[in-house]
Write a structure and sequence with these properties.
mainly alpha; protein dimerization activity; HAT C-terminal dimerisation domain-containing protein
Length: about 60
Amino acid sequence: MARDFLAIPATSVSVERLFSASRHLCTDLRSSFRAQTVTEAMCVKQWIRAGLLEVIPARSSKKK
């Protein structure tokens, strides 16, 4: 029985990276985010890094 439970790793590196990345997204100022919003934001961030989404800079609305 000990072999069955001790053979399973407690966590994996990918999970640790995910928690670390979510810590940067969920600051005290953004603590009211729902779980779905955090998940979506993290997915979009990864998609942008992978080149799957194109980011278009916002136009400046300042009048000269």
